[in-house]
Amino acid sequence: MRPSPARLLNILVPVKRCVDYAMKIRVNPQQTGVDTNVKHSMNPFDEIAVEEAVRIRERLGDKVKSIKAVTIGPSKSAETLRTALAIGADAAIHVEIPDSAPSPEPLGVAKAIRAVIERQKEQGGVDLVIMGKQAIDDDAGQTGQILAGLMDWSQATFASKIVVDAEKKEANVTREIDGGLEELKCRLPLVVTTDLRLNEPRYATLPSIMKAKKKPIEKLTPADLGVDLTPRIETIKVTEPPKRVGGTKVANVDELVAKLKEAGVVPT
């Protein structure tokens, strides 16, 4: 009796639309958050995640069935999905929220991704979730870990190298820790969060951008997924840090101590 063929891998890559990393961040006049009327782009860590998903398919060939990108955000987040499609994703899912709605918190995002994964079971399921270790707007760095906990899946955070064995349904992940590098062997399904040194994302070529316009984007709402993205934390006020003032040169230690006492840094 012949053994049944191994099931092909399905990869899901969550991405987020953020204020572009090159923009100068300013607090809005209402002091309710930062001014978002500036250039936006894909979160850089998520861009690395999309690139790594494409590289895994390039290494494994036809053992990878599909790469899907997913985002939870306003209507303009579709541009971010098109970028992921241009890099090499096959299809995308847009969980659309109103433009005026606050950005969902990590717990809400993780619950939405879990619901997306549950819906994908009809299409072969999800074997590997690759996502950025953090978003550069809130710097929370929690969504991947929460998702792994909700799904009861293996997790490997801050990955700097990923080697997937499709036959054994395993992955060796090298991750960056304070003491150096740590290698984990994980069983699929698996959640991986990417670090900066994992790869250097490719530029999307014009032909790829044109092809991306024909790739499908499925639109859903939080209600379709049965999740509530209402934030649990209320931001009362956002202010800029105090402006730095110029330093002063002193002639000797006694003058330095006197200046520190005047500033109230040391007791008089």
Estimated radius of gyration: 23 Å
Helix content: 25-40%
**What integer is the average pLDDT?**
89
Task: Let me know the largest β-sheet.
Answer: 9 strands, mixed
Uncertain residue segments: none
Q: What can you tell me about this protein's structure?
A:
The protein has seven helices and eleven strands. The chain has helices spanning 44-60, 77-87, 106-119, 143-151, 206-212, 222-225, 253-262; strands spanning 9-14, 17-19, 40-42, 64-73, 91-96, 128-132, 154-165, 170-177, 180-187, 190-194, 217-220. 27% of the residues lie in helices and 26% in strands. Strands 9-8-7-10-6-1-4-5-11 form a nine-stranded mixed sheet, sandwiched between helices. The chain has a two-stranded antiparallel sheet with strand order 2-3. It has one domain (9-240): Rossmann fold. The N and C termini lie far apart (89 Å). It has 268 residues and is α/β, with parallel strands linked by helices.
Task: Give the topology, please.
Blueprint lengths: L8 E6 L2 E3 L20 E3 L1 H17 L3 E10 L3 H11 L3 E6 L9 H14 L8 E5 L10 H9 L2 E12 L4 E8 L2 E8 L2 E5 L11 H7 L4 E4 L1 H4 L27 H10 L6
Parallel strand pairs: 1-4, 1-6, 4-5, 5-11, 6-10, 7-10
Antiparallel strand pairs: 2-3, 7-8, 8-9
Helix pairs in contact: 2-5, 3-4
Keywords: Electron transport, Mitochondrion, Transport
Cofactor: FAD; AMP
Main location: mitochondrion
Task: For this entry, give a set of tags.
268 residues, alpha/beta, Rossmann fold, nine-stranded mixed β-sheet, two-stranded antiparallel sheet, 7 helices, 27% helix, 26% strand
